[in-house]
Automatic annotation (TrEMBL):
<feature type="domain" description="Methylamine utilisation protein MauE">
    <location>
        <begin position="10"/>
        <end position="81"/>
    </location>
</feature>
<keyword id="KW-0812">Transmembrane</keyword>
<keyword id="KW-0472">Membrane</keyword>
<dbReference type="Pfam" id="PF07291">
    <property type="entry name" value="MauE"/>
</dbReference>
<feature type="transmembrane region" description="Helical">
    <location>
        <begin position="46"/>
        <end position="63"/>
    </location>
</feature>
<feature type="transmembrane region" description="Helical">
    <location>
        <begin position="70"/>
        <end position="90"/>
    </location>
</feature>
<protein>
    <recommendedName>
        <fullName>Methylamine utilisation protein MauE domain-containing protein</fullName>
    </recommendedName>
</protein>
<keyword id="KW-1133">Transmembrane helix</keyword>
<dbReference type="InterPro" id="IPR009908">
    <property type="entry name" value="Methylamine_util_MauE"/>
</dbReference>
<feature type="transmembrane region" description="Helical">
    <location>
        <begin position="9"/>
        <end position="26"/>
    </location>
</feature>
Length: 133
């Protein structure tokens, strides 16, 4: 992957994270509902914290100087939010109000974390290395 492809990957991930992070504040309720039950405290706190994390990582991915760190943080973040995706799939599968198509979407989202993590790792691997002068 060239530096230009790495930049493209980083910017695509940044756009995704910026959009998702923004939605955590604009419409927090859906995110509250997928916070795993085993986490202590208020779901809204986790919704806002993950929104801040997503926005911060997006910012780090956009800036060439912090892109390497941002890409590593993105990979960690995609792994960290996976339990919420599992919680969403379980909740949606148990719901009698959702269509089979909606339930299929919830399940289909789970393996999508894999290409997100691998894309973040590629962006990290191909980001410019900052040298100390």
């Amino acid at each position: 992957m060239s530096a230009q492809q790495s930049q493209g990957a980083a910017l695509r991930l940044a756009a995704l994270l910026f959009g998702a992070g923004t939605m955590h504040f604009v419409r927090p309720k859906p995110f509250d509902s997928i916070v795993p039950d085993f986490l202590p405290g208020d779901a809204r706190m986790y919704t806002y914290a993950s929104g801040v994390a997503e926005l911060s990582v997006a910012g780090a991915l956009v800036v060439p100087r912090t892109r390497r760190l941002g890409a590593a943080a993105a990979a960690v973040l995609f792994v960290a939010v996976f339990p919420a995706n599992v919680q969403m799939a379980v909740s949606w599968l148990r719901s009698s109000k959702l269509s089979p198509a909606a339930k299929a979407v919830a399940l289909a989202r789970l393996p999508l974390q894999i290409p997100l993590v691998t894309e973040a790792l590629k962006a990290r691997r191909n980001a410019p290395v900052r040298t100390v002068a």
